[in-house]
Amino acid sequence: MSKKIVAFTGAGISRASGIPTFEETKGIKERLTLENKTNNPSDYYAAIDILKKNCNGKKPNDAHKALAEYKIPIITMNVDMLHQKAGSAFVCELHGNIYDNSIVAYGELVHDWDKAADLLNDCKAHDVLLVIGTSMQTVLANEFVLTAISKNMKVIEINKDAEHKVRKVLKEEVI
Question: I need a surface site. Which of 21, 26, 82, 87 has the fewest CB within 10 A?
């Protein structure tokens, strides 16, 4: 019986592809709130345009490609679609994506929550949750990690140098 591996990814996985994180894009996070979307939609959509510009022409790096090659199901907070561009077939986009204008504003419910929760609920003890490129500063990241720990899953965090470490970790974990 082989173990199941699920990946939970944040902005750090796409940083090596040239996409800055929210922390590196000063003021963007504050503009992407539900309140701003409601009260100042022109500013909100201008912030979305900045995200689009940051993602235009960017390509998946080796971390994205390795997850696709190993057919790892992905739960992501990213809106850049680099997992899909790398060839991943199962991607839960919790915050939507920039290409279909489905980005979730801070204060709105996330997308694919049930799909992501079901994916993790199907895991059992000794399965693996890869946490890649997250700052662990979000409720979502902490929720998934705590769920994995409660299920006695192995949690592997790769928050620095993901583009070089993900493939190595997958080679060690896949039997």
Answer: 26
